Amino acid sequence: VLMQNLKTHQQAVASASVADNAVHARGVWHRPNVSGKETTLQGLCEVLDTFADAGINMVFLETFYHGMTVFKTNRVQYYKGFEQFQYGDYPDYLTAFASEAEKRGIEVHAWVQDFYIGVSDENNFVKYYPDWLLTAQNGGYRQTEGKESGGYIFLDPANAEVRQFLVDFYDELLTKVPQVKGLNLDYIRYPVSSVGDDTGFTATAMQQFSSRYGLNLPQNCTINQFISLLNSNNLQNDWTKFRAEIVTGFVQQVFDMVNEKHPTAMLSTAIFPDFQVTYNTKKQDISTWLENDFIDIVTPMVYYYEASQVQSAVSDMMEKCKNCFCYTGLYATYHNQSQEELLAQINASDVAGADGFVLFDSAKTFFQNDYSDVLQSNFGSVHSTLPHCVTDFTVKTVLTELTQRFSALAEEGKENADKVKLFQKEAEAICGGQSADEIKGALNRLVEYNLTQYVSANNAQAALQILRPLQRCVEVRCGRDAVKGVETFYTSTSDDGNETPPSGGNSQTPPDNPPSDDGNDILPLVGIALCILFVGVAAGFVLAKALKKKR
């Protein structure tokens, strides 16, 4: 059915890959009311229905931006204009959006712009906390970055009060709106800068740096005097390192707060894939963040035009994401590229091993441009579990469906019945695992060694297209559990010994139905995917080869 609905040969080729993942993140970055409809609860729900129909199962909702928020709190100004909007019984936009999204099986994470607070002098931070603002090399708080808008305004990462303020704000947000399942950290950096056009010269930062490196600052030290000391002592690289360490310290501070107070919440970050460039220009030491396991999910901004560029960048990124999930940030809709090019980029991301994708942004995807049809055709009726929500129940559901499919093929004489029974026996053993490590190890053995013993090469390859992403997600989920000291993967046994399906929020459900906690949401996907793969496996392989040659 999926194949027949596609309009072109290229779409057909791409869809054979993009639509068959039992475990897949399909996200979008969304700015509140960019649709123009979200001034009422009804309009907000219409937007969420649009996302759900398109197969979106995750939204990074812009929650702290321009120094304001769409969450009512005493800490940060409520976003101008939103006070006149009404959302029924919900107290604010964020609570309404996250709650209604949860009803539709869409998981919401708060996308926060950390140190960047916009371009307006009317910002409350500018008015009431001038000592918190970052200082550029020219002595002002307007940065060179964003000069077309008068210069961006940033908070000072070196200021401990700033860092604690943000951490406390995020803690309050996650506490009061539990429907928000994580934080997506953006602008977690210094403004783009270079030698001669640098930034970060607050009195706080200069004093901290001088104390660390034994510099004797003159009284009322100026920026030019400080830079002269850097140059005369050959400390320019150390100045870069110092600021990068401050940013890393803040990432750890947020991670520690989330891990201690909201251990099931996910911490993600929007980053560019060239780590060396971002270190030098933005003071982001992303390698250290990943090496120290501070990040649950990376959303690399792979903003290229060509699918081959996407695949190359994601392949490099996956080498660095052994213990975190990777949801590729894609820009095809923002670039107003064709539907075929969007599918090709999603396919390239999947081929490179990413765990899903996030589209930037909702305005260019759904409201200014319209990619709804192509997304709905490929993902709207295909439910998928979010990788970071995988549990042992997900594994059992997938293996049960595979067993049923293999058994049906055996009844048709297309597979050896005795070998399929051996597969069933191994699948049942995996499902009966008594711990996360036991299930993970048994699944690894099936995928890496045993599957090809039970079914033909073509059907084994088809099954691996579903099992390998699942295998990676189980590996990462268990690794994240170990880092955070929690047990979220293994859920099958409650205190009374009865099997317990995972809680809600693990998968997309159709917008017309209430969220389901019965764990069966994955079955439709596996059925559709395996029908495509097993019934038309030969055609699928031919098409895949054709695509490879074409690229």
Automatic annotation (TrEMBL):
Q: Which UniProt keywords apply?
A: Membrane, Signal, Transmembrane, Transmembrane helix
The portions of this protein that span the membrane are: 522-544
PANTHER family recorded: GLYCOSYL HYDROLASE DIGH
The record, for InterPro entries, names:
Divisome_Glycosyl_Hydrolase, GH, GHL10
This protein's superkingdom? Bacteria
Report domain Glycosyl hydrolase-like positions.
Answer: 26-313
Q: Where is this region: Disordered?
A: 490-519
The keyword Membrane appears for this protein: yes
Protein name stated in the entry:
Family 10 glycosylhydrolase
- Name the residue ranges with Polar residues bias: 490-509
